[in-house]
Predict the structure of LacI family transcriptional regulator.
Amino acid sequence: MNITIKDIAELAGVAKSTVSRYLNGGNVSEKTKEKIRKVIAETNYEPNSFAQSLKAKKTNFIGVIAPTLDSYVTSTVLMAIDEELRKRDYTTLIISTSKHVEREIESLISLSRQKVDGIILIATGVTEKHIETINSIQIPVLIVAQEVDQCNCIINDDYQAGYKMGQYIVGKGHLSVAYIGVTESDIAVGQRRKQGILDGLAEAGVSDIKTYISEFDLHDAAKVTNDMLENFTPTAIICATDTIAFGAMKTISKLGKKVPDDFSLTGFGGYNISEVIHPALTTIRFKNEATGVMAAETIIKMTEGYGVPELQVSGFEFVEGESVKSLKS
Amino acid sequence: MNITIKDIAELAGVAKSTVSRYLNGGNVSEKTKEKIRKVIAETNYEPNSFAQSLKAKKTNFIGVIAPTLDSYVTSTVLMAIDEELRKRDYTTLIISTSKHVEREIESLISLSRQKVDGIILIATGVTEKHIETINSIQIPVLIVAQEVDQCNCIINDDYQAGYKMGQYIVGKGHLSVAYIGVTESDIAVGQRRKQGILDGLAEAGVSDIKTYISEFDLHDAAKVTNDMLENFTPTAIICATDTIAFGAMKTISKLGKKVPDDFSLTGFGGYNISEVIHPALTTIRFKNEATGVMAAETIIKMTEGYGVPELQVSGFEFVEGESVKSLKS
DNA sequence: CGTTGAATTGGAACCGGTTCCTAAAATGTT
DNA sequence: AACATTTTAGGAACCGGTTCCAATTCAACG
């Protein structure tokens, strides 16, 4: 049904090895080249890349496992990875796990069956089981967004980013601060980012800090904020992500209060939507594109057997919006 | 280097055909089953799915070509497609073209080499060349978001959605309306949606309608809005997408005006971010998840040779926010 | 205990390419 | 024209699976 190299060979009256040589730029005389060229054009023949990689022992596939596609951060990183990999003649195989952790394991295994040359895992949390699976499949794995011992990782500089934000809030004269974070099972955001913020605040002597925990979604963040404000009235609310900040903002305006007049508010992430929202959110923008490019470069090096540093850190920039009020006179 | 079925066979002391039968649930005695099970467990053997599909003439891959990953609509549709395909044991191969149209053609060809079983093309515009390529590769292609003669398509009900919006605006008493649309080369959004809106407005006798054209991005929309307001002061601005509406909103607040007091504003799309923004945007929410599921179901039917309707229409719902003022007393 | 039929197993061919090796053809050299 | 050298072409084996077919084993039955 489908056209194969054998058909081309027969139609052109040559051996399939000759066709193969023609396709891969080997020694073929002009006369036979012409014959083959003609037949291929007529038949719309496309070589079966599965059969090719079977022999080549190299698929030029890189698998990327992402927790979701509909988050700004993930999709930006994915786009950058895809772009960079394409430039280098790799095909990106994106798998979304819809935030089901067990699917990350399944996906690692299923990608290993596809014999991808390498895997980039955009992680939210890495368990024992992950590490076990990573070790059992014989394929290089690069972890993005979480730090794991003995594994190659690319992470954001969460501690420094948090520290910077803490210092900024202190600098604006806030002494009573709430932090809405996420579960500590998330090392990067839940632990490092938080620690940076706390240290940044603490260094200048801010003591009245209360911390809360929210899910990553807007609605839960709104609820957590609401619960918090019943018992505690800070001057500034630092949120672990922009989405959480949006949730907080929603609750604040529902209560008839205003940002930044009643509460100063900050996030982390740097969604481009932030600039539309009024007031523009003060936040930290992580360099997601750079992370993606770095991830693509790194995984290729790994598949080629070159050594790469175990831990690489991607940068960020501070984005000053209008959501923080200065309490200094 | 990598473990193959041959290795398993030798280690277990059986023929490779027996191992294959074991893996695919054929007739194998308990005793041999046990031997093979043990060897596979020890070696972490994973069958090479390339070699499998080579013989099976079926890869269980479905390719999806998307213009970008970082748009709410695209990623929602993608997630739904992926989810549904996984349920049915297909692997989704997502390719992003970063809005380069020529890459859509390239991707069609490259997917045909991967011998995917079917292709879903999330399109922004379909040219002659597209159709030529679609016909030349021997693989079922389903087009999402654009309508093309002789091709299987799933589209939003843009005309009806536009009509509904037009009627709504008229119903609120607006007589002087601006429409910020997009290029007519986009049949769905640029032509159908616009026509629906114009018809919806015209039916009630609104005559003072001016139309403008913007790119799909926020910044251009802001600029277009700005230029428009120098010459024309409508009471309502209907935007072809939510993003364009956000751009318009940005300009409006920059000019010190307010929505909906000075201008009523509407969009199309139904981003979840819309509810955060104050005032909440009145918009049309297309059922993107349903579209994704429908796309997945349809492409599978197509690969299995079942007939499917050439054109399928996905639904929408009207979302009333706070961005439209009633001019009726 | 020999026969029969079903269950189990091994061997070989095949899927669609690539590559190695050798034979034939083309070209150059004296 | 005879020989050496380089190009070009074909045949066969291989990549890692699946599947068909024939051979063997096994249990049941008369």
Observations:
- Chain B touches chain A through 51 residues (CB under 8 Å).
